[in-house]
Each structure stands twice: as structure tokens, then as C-alpha cells.
Amino acid sequence: MGLLDKLRKLTGKSKRAGDGVECLTGNVALPALVYDAPIRRIIILKLDHLGDFFVAIKAMTMVRQAWPSAEITLVCGPWNASLAAELAIFDKIIPFSFFNETSSKSAVAPAYDYSVIAEAVEGEFDLAIDLRHDDDTRRFLDHINAKYRVGYVAEKLQRPLALCLPNMEPSWRPPKKGSAVHSTLSAEGRLTLLAAATIDVFGPKTAHPVQQLTTRRARQLALPEKSYAVIAVGAGSPLRKWRLERFIDLAKLLVAEFGLKIVLIGGASDREANAELAANLPPAACHDLSGLPIADVPPIVSRARLFVGNDTGTTHLAAFLDVPTVCLYAGMSDPNVWQPIGRNVAVVRAKVACSYCRLAHASECSHDNICMTGIRFDAVVAEIQRLLQDSHPGTEKAEGCNPKSNPAKRPVAGAFT
After folding, report:
1. Residue 248 gets which letter from DSSP?
2. List of E strands, 29-173
3. pLDDT tens by residue, 10-49
4. Taking Cα atoms as reference points, which of 202, 198, 200 lies closest to residue 150?
5. Which residue, 338, 369, 339, 340, is CA-closest to 354?
6. If we measure between CA atoms, which residue out of 163, 165, 160, 168 comes closest to residue 139?
7. Which is nearest to 30 in space by CA: 348, 342, 336?
8. What is the CA radius of gyration of the chain?
9. b/e 253-279 (16+ beta carbons within 10 angstroms → b)
10. pTM of the full predicted structure?
11. Cα separation of 206 and 124, whole Å?
């Protein structure tokens, strides 16, 4: 008998509302998609003039410092090749004429064949960066064999950029009366911004600074003796909440089939829901920490074997802490922007036509919150199994297995005193 069959027998439920809605799983936000992506070969395009090259030196140095062992190729105007060599940060320099040497003669022919760069640049690259704000060189990226392409926004590209920053050029229209006149980044600032964004997304990942919050109060807290899962049923908006009955069923499953204890967290507004959930579990299997000061939450979450929550702050915390995290994602906002980011994250969401509505109140939704009710229970369980298997190989892989029957396979988290 599979896990879901066992649960349905336990709860007496054979079907749940929303089971017919297509469920989507997996990460979509760029940092999550490329987490720990190996970057061994990088190519930088810097095809413009002498002054442009000077203002790009800081950005190019940032790239080298981020990937000290990578093979970095620079494609630049012939007039800048000797200067580039003096920097000693490139493994290979390819002179390539696109502009004229002087900026006064830099018009690009409308019918220019950008594919000619393929004759000068050979091989495959992990990362290609067009280190120019103006878009006249961006189309060269279409003809470079690179897994990821990065640059400022441009039109007429054959393939989308993996990372694209918006145009930073200020509008020259006179400001409206009473409107503030905003400053813009310098030429160097624009390029260092692009380099910093590239490094942040694709560069080697270190421990998130939020980790420092996990030790400040650790000695003052009592943590479970055995492996535990943290469940957060709350969210800032009712529209972001998975049904409590499903959280209850899930908690029962985690206790009965995975041998996990349950730790409930949340604010004062979650006390009632957490109390109802706890009442459905054996007292020894559940620890209700509703109302715990937020400064005490990170140590609890960091020691968990699993975190399950809605699209809310503590779910982001768990993801940053690299705790296996299942996020039950509402259709209100774009997951490309707002999904939790971490090495061990699974985002489960319903595919509905009304996403991304940005509604704030339940009374505004005319679809019975289908983006949350449509998140299928079996999809959530499958992602939990996958995350636990990935984080602790040899456990919870096949449906129906019972890790509780083999305590030796269950790593023990921090202990409750």
C-alpha cells in the first residue's frame, strides 16, 4: 500500500478538492535554476573604444576574482588588445573589429552580419557576458556557443538572455511639475552592476549571511530529541494559505510514515490553526511554538530535517539555510521573482489562468482561491520524498517505504532537552 493510500485509509478521505488541477513543481527563478552551476569557461565581449575599456576594467576584474580558476577569454577591439594583456586577468585575448577605433566613426551598418564572430570565437563556453550597456553588440551573443548569456536588455535577439538587466539610460524628457529628477549610474557603475549581478547569480555560493542568526539564541532553546519537520501554516494573506486540513493530513503522514516529529511555528494569528493541527497528532509528536519571538526561529529552522510552508517569510528563511524546503506557492506573484532560493527547495504550485493576480484580500478572488486549493496533496508528498532522498540518500525513495521502521537511516537533528 502506497503512502497516499495509507493516509486516505487513516483519514477516511478518498479525494480532495482541487485534485483535477494541473500541479507544477520545480524551481523557476534564475538563481535556483543555476545553483552551483559549474562555470569553467567564460567569454567577455568588450568591443568598443579606449575610454569604454578603461571604465570596464573594474567589472572585468570582479569577474576574474569571482572565478579565479576559470578560463576567461576576452574579445575586444584590436586597439585595446595590448592594454588587456597588461591586466593579466585573461587567458586568451581575441582582437575583433566591429566599431571603428574612434567613436566619431562608429556607425554600424543596418545589415551587419553578426554571425561573423563565430569564425573568430571557437569552442563552448559556460558563460558569455556582453560588457556594454548600449545594445548594438548584444546580437553577437546569439552566435556564441554559451550555456548562459548575460547582458543589458536588447531587441531582435534570437534567443533570450539568461540574465538581462534593464536599460539604465535616463529619459531626457523634461520632468513633470513636482516630480523628482533621479540620478543614474555612471558608465563604470552600469558595468560593475552587471558584473555583480552575474556573480551573484552564477558565482560560487557561500553560506548565506542569514546563517549568523542560527547561533545567537541556540543555547537558550529546547529542540526535539529526534528528527523533526517544521510546518508553517500561516502567511501574510489568506490567499497564500494552503488549507489547514491538508496541513493536518500532511503532518500525520510525516509522523506515521517518515518517523518525524512536528514543530509548528507562527505568529499570534496562527495560534488557533496550530492548536487544531496539534490536536490531531500524538502529544509527544508535536511541539507547538506559536508566538515564538522571530529571533528564536532561525535556530529551530536550521536544525530541521524538513520545512513545509506557504509563500511566507520563514519559508524564505528555511531555503536560505539550505534546509530541505517545500514551498506551497500561491498564484498571486511571479515565482520567477519571489520563489524561495536555496539548494534544497521544491516549489509546488497550481497551473491556473488567473496567475499572477496580485490580489491582497480573499474577498477579491472570484475563483475560490484555486491557485492554493489546486495544489495537490500527492504532488507535495512526492516533492518531500525527493528532497529527503536527495539530502539523505538511501531514505524515503520509493512510495510506500517506511523510514520509521529503520531508525538507522534517519539522521538525528538537534536534540530537545
Report:
1. H
2. 41-46, 71-76, 92-95, 125-130, 146-152, 163-165
3. 444 434 444 556 677 777 787 777 777 899 999 999 999 9
4. 198
5. 369
6. 160
7. 336
8. 26
9. bbbbbbbbbbbbbbeeebeebbeebbe
10. 0.79
11. 27
